[in-house]
Write a structure and sequence with these properties.
ATP binding, 6-stranded parallel sheet, 9-stranded mixed sheet, 8 helices, 30 strands, single chain, alpha/beta, 26% strand
């Protein structure tokens, strides 16, 4: 056991398949999906850790890990390249001849008990790698200490109509959790779990071992560990968060979160220098916007060539928008080319896509969010032929 210790370390769950993002995660782990012009989704929790003074982060990867592992590297872009602590990639591994994937969120932490014990922390912060938000975890830890809690769960108020999509907490006037339901059909509270937990490590460790020994458990925090702690009358508290937070696990929510960056009233402050979002950025030349271009209320990242019309859109690094091409209310991911005469509306275009001349992607805005697949999506490395049409809810 090392003589030095960390008061609090973070364990970041980044192994989700992200199947609801369809073609966007066929080759890419969900936390590595591009976001906001120059970021990846995982940049947000990693940056939150650094901005909160947490310098030791275990990153638990599983599905399609190559791109995510390469992106994180030694953690230097986030200041997490340290001799003691820093960023550590933690894929599933075999302790015997039997190889085992992470079976659930709790099992993922259980499999890494030895890693956590190396730092002998008093507290463990458990995070999800697929949410967009800016949060000071140090304030949550102060709350946890003040309450002398065994477990603190970050919660955010959601509309009652959406509450059945989340794990819902009921808490008393002192913020002590009295009831927890995972995706209840008839919720009696609007305090939704954000998937952010702080545990006293000794207590969590004992529950993880007990949970692993239970053959009936699904080895999940929300379904198993949290209800068991509550049944045992552990000291569990709800920490209310009133900032911007969005689970970008669907096409609709990913598109909405990108569009929120363009809305000054949305609550997400991407340019706040006091809590910067760090990312691995590769050297690119400045973007060039020609005389023929028209750009309105949009983000244009480095290395782009813009000759056409861009309105209310996010254009990532290295993209080309040709003369007479139009991009409206859309997200265009890195190194995509949209050729002359093409029209892209209410769409997400993946990385390295070629959109042929006079192609049409997306449709009228009047019903673009009528269902989950109202946004057109083109997957990574695809080619849309000249004059091809992609319907408003089509996924290619």
């Amino acid at each position: 056991m090392l003589s030095r210790r960390k008061e609090c370390i973070a364990m970041l769950l980044a192994g989700g398949q992200g199947s609801r993002l369809k073609v966007l995660t066929e080759q890419t782990a969900k936390p590595a999906v591009p976001f906001g012009g120059k970021y990846r989704i995982i940049d947000f929790p990693l940056s939150n850790c650094v901005n909160s003074g947490i310098d030791t982060v275990g990153i638990l990867t599983q599905y399609q890990p190559l791109e995510l592992n390469s992106y994180i590297g030694n953690g230097r872009p986030w200041g997490l390249n340290r001799n003691f602590g820093g960023a550590h990639i933690l894929p599933p591994y075999s302790k015997s001849k039997k190889s085992e994937w992470y079976k659930g969120t709790a099992n993922a932490i259980y499999q890494n008990i030895h890693f956590i014990d190396l730092f002998n922390p008093e507290y463990v912060l458990v995070l999800s790698g697929d949410h967009i938000y800016k949060m000071d975890y140090a304030k949550m830890l102060d709350f946890h200490k003040e309450k002398k809690a065994d477990c603190t769960i970050a919660v955010i108020d959601v509309p009652l109509s959406e509450a059945s999509r989340f794990g819902i907490m009921t808490a008393d006037k002192e913020d002590k959790i009295t009831k927890f339901e995972e995706k209840p059909k008839k919720p009696d509270s609007t305090k939704a779990s954000m998937g952010i937990y702080i545990f006293n490590w000794k207590i969590l460790k004992s529950y993880l071992i007990e949970d692993e020994e239970n053959p009936k458990s699904s080895n999940d925090f929300g379904k198993d560990v949290i209800p068991k702690m509550l049944a045992d009358k552990a000291k569990m508290y709800a920490y209310s968060f009133d900032g911007y937070w969005k689970d970008v696990g669907t096409i609709k929510s990913l598109w909405e979160a990108n569009m929120d960056l363009l809305d000054p009233e949305s609550g997400i402050k991407i340019k706040d220098s006091k809590s910067r979002i760090y990312a691995r950025n590769y050297a690119s030349p400045p973007s060039f916007v020609s005389k023929s271009a028209e750009v309105e209320n949009s983000y244009i990242a480095e290395g782009c060539l813009i000759k056409g019309k861009v309105k209310n859109s996010i254009i990532f690094t290295g993209c080309v928008i040709d003369e007479y091409a139009e991009v409206t209310d859309s997200v265009v991911m890195p190194n995509t080319k949209i050729l002359s005469g093409a029209s892209v509306k209410y769409s997400i275009i993946g990385e390295n896509v070629l959109v042929g001349g006079n192609a049409k992607i997306g449709g009228d805005p009047k019903d673009y969010l009528e269902n989950e697949w109202g946004i057109s999506v083109v997957g990574k490395d695809k080619a849309i032929e000249a004059e091809q049409t992609v319907l408003p809810d089509e996924i290619i």
